[in-house]
Each structure stands twice: as structure tokens, then as C-alpha cells.
Design a protein that fits this description.
The protein has about 300 residues and is of the alpha/beta class. It is built from 11 helices and 13 strands. The chain has helices spanning about 40-50, 65-70, 75-85, 85-95, 115-120, 120-125, 145-155, 215-220, 235-240, 265-275, 280-295; strands spanning about 10-15, 35, 40, 55-60, 100-105, 130, 135-140, 160-165, 175-180, 185-195, 205-215, 250, 255-260. The protein has a 5-stranded mixed beta barrel with strand order 8-11-9-10-12. It is globular. The chain binds 1-O-phosphono-alpha-D-glucopyranose.
Length: about 300
């Protein structure tokens, strides 16, 4: 059963060009690349729905019709599956189209993640909302990652963001936060910097792509100038929020995190999700052994 949630809306930025996955992403949005046989964005939306989210706002660029189609009815497909006696698959397809109310908004220029989230302002309105980045997968069947942040937000009234400790030398790949950690491991965030130059990071605590934000973020986003990489950065607007009375809490979210936006991370996620499937597990393990043996490992 889905818990009643104080957060009903989630924003999923999906306007990137997916250049790290070319040529696969030349015509197919990277959010539709499968983890085993489920599009990445479906895993992310499923996480949000399990946390009580009912409305998802996808911020699209060009070429994103596949995402809308995926979460719509596919009458011909469902009909054909039923005619062939595969009612189970037909029901599964129908369930995807009723999973969530999907709203598409367009980011007309690639001005950065902060700008992408700002494009969802009208659709979200004056209420707290979640942001989920599709490159980050948080695998937790019992307690969805974004739900853990929604609880912290409900408890504290502050913005809540997921954080994890990264190895020294990797800080420049992330937004990095610093602040005071309490006994429960939560961090009251005081400092944030997007992709710090090597050797300048204030800590090794990196932002993972899950956020619960109050509507006070909107004016900060609207006023954020271009930052790292010449883009309007979400992290820069978050910093303003963190030092405002609203405040911000960093939470180490329970669950296995995969960076599906990176080739190795994507392969790792595929393997990890395949190994969770009882019907695949033994065969995948046998396959791994066979491949390793073939490589003389
Ligand atoms: C984005 C955010 C960054 C965060 C990261 C997590 O960066 O800007 O703050 O640490 O996601 O995956 P990107 O990976 O899109 O460059």
C-alpha cells in the first residue's frame, strides 16, 4: 500500500542530450535505456509512486515522445497480447499507463539542471515537491529513497537532499555539501558547491540525485546566474535555500545507489537488477563465470 504523503508532485529532468551514451541515444532518450527490461525512468517513477507521489512532471527536450508514449495506453499492443492469450503481459502494460499522472513540460534551451527544474514551476505551483534525477538509481524495495527524504521533510520542515560519501579525488564529479552532522547521521547543510575544482572541495559528501524542496526554492532558482560549466546549476539555488531560515538537511539514504548515467555504472546496475530477479539469477551467475573463464580470469 502506498503511504499518504505530504509530497504529491515530482519533477524529473529529462532534457539532456545523453551524449555519454551515443550512438544509443541518438534517437532514443537516455531515460528509456533499459535496466534489464525496464526503462530507467520507469524505475525512477516507480520509486516516486511508492513514496506517495501521484503527479510526475517530466522536463523534456527534443526527441522525448517515447517517454510520453511509454506511460500512455498502447491499445494495439495490449489487444494483440490478449488475443495471443498473454493477459498477464497485457495487464502489465496497462498498469504502466495508469501508474502516474504525467505532465510534460519543455525546456527549450539546454541552460542547465537548475533551469530544467525551473521549467516545472507552473506545473508544481506553491507546494513542496520532489526532484529525482534519472541517472541515479536507488534500489530499496522496502523503503523508497525519495520516501525517506519526504519523511525528513515532514519531520523538520526543511528541504531534504540525499548525500553520500565519495572517495577522495572524485569530488569534482558532484555537487558537494558541508555542514554539521547530528548523532543520527543527518547533516544540517551550511555550504554547497557544484563540481568543485580538484583540491578545493569542502568535504567528501556528495549530492545524490534526490531532493525534496519547499516552494521557497522558486525565487532562488529564478535568480540563479550561470555557474559551473556555464549552466544554471540547481546546487547554486539550493545553497541560497540552505542558508535561509527554511534550511536544508542532508540524509544518507538507505538503498543501493547506482550511477546509471555512466557506462560502467549502467552495466553494474543491469547486473545488480538482473541478479535480484529469481528467474534470471542463476543463469546470469553462470554467464558471468563463463565469460570470466573465457577471459582467463
Ligand atoms: C548532478 C548535480 C550534482 C549531483 C549529481 C548526482 O550532476 O548537478 O550536484 O551531485 O547530479 O548524480 P550531473 O551528474 O548531472 O553532472
Amino acid at each position: 500500500m502506498t503511504a499518504r504523503s505530504s509530497v504529491r508532485k515530482a519533477v524529473i529532468p529529462a532534457a539532456g542530450l545523453g551524449t555519454r551514451f551515443l550512438p544509443a541515444t541518438k534517437a532514443v532518450p537516455k531515460e528509456m535505456l533499459p535496466i534489464v527490461d525496464v526503462p530507467t525512468i520507469q524505475l525512477v517513477i516507480d520509486e516516486a509512486v511508492r513514496a506517495g507521489v501521484t503527479d510526475v512532471i517530466v522536463v523534456n527536450g527534443r526527441n522525448k515522445h517515447a517517454i510520453e508514449d511509454h506511460f500512455d495506453h498502447a491499445y494495439e499492443l495490449e489487444h494483440t497480447l490478449r488475443e495471443r492469450g498473454n493477459a498477464r503481459a497485457a495487464d502489465e502494460m496497462a498498469a504502466i499507463s495508469t501508474l502516474v499522472r504525467l505532465i510534460s513540460v519543455r525546456q527549450k534551451q539546454p541552460l542547465g539542471l537548475g533551469h530544467a527544474v525551473l521549467c516545472a514551476r507552473e506545473a508544481v505551483g506553491d507546494e513542496p515537491f520532489a526532484v529525482l534525477l534519472g541517472d541515479d538509481l536507488i534500489d530499496n524495495d522496502a523503503d523508497p529513497g525519495i520516501g525517506q527524504l519526504i519523511r525528513v521533510h515532514a519531520e523538520t520542515g526543511a528541504a531534504a537532499i540525499a548525500i553520500m560519501e565519495v572517495p577522495a579525488g572524485k569530488e569534482h564529479m558532484y555537487g558537494i555539501v558541508a555542514g554539521d552532522r547530528d548523532a543520527g547521521g543527518r547533516m544540517r547543510i551550511r555550504e554547497m558547491v557544484e563540481k568543485p575544482k580538484p583540491g578545493t572541495a569542502p568535504s567528501r559528501w556528495a549530492i545524490v540525485g534526490r531532493y525534496v524542496l519547499p516552494p521557497e526554492i522558486w525565487p532562488h532558482l529564478a535568480n540563479t546566474p550561470p555557474g559551473a560549466g556555464g549552466e544554471i546549476q540547481l546546487t547554486d539555488a539550493l545553497r541560497e535555500l540552505a542558508v535561509s531560515p527554511a534550511g536544508m538537511v542532508g540524509v544518507v539514504v538507505a538503498g543501493a545507489r547506482h550511477d546509471a548515467g555512466d557506462k560502467l555504472g549502467y552495466l553494474r546496475a543491469n547486473l545488480a537488477y538482473a541478479l535480484k530477479r529469481p528467474e534470471l539469477r542463476d543463469a546470469v551467475l553462470a554467464l558471468c563465470r563463463e565469460i570470466l573463464a573465457g577471459q582467463g580470469v
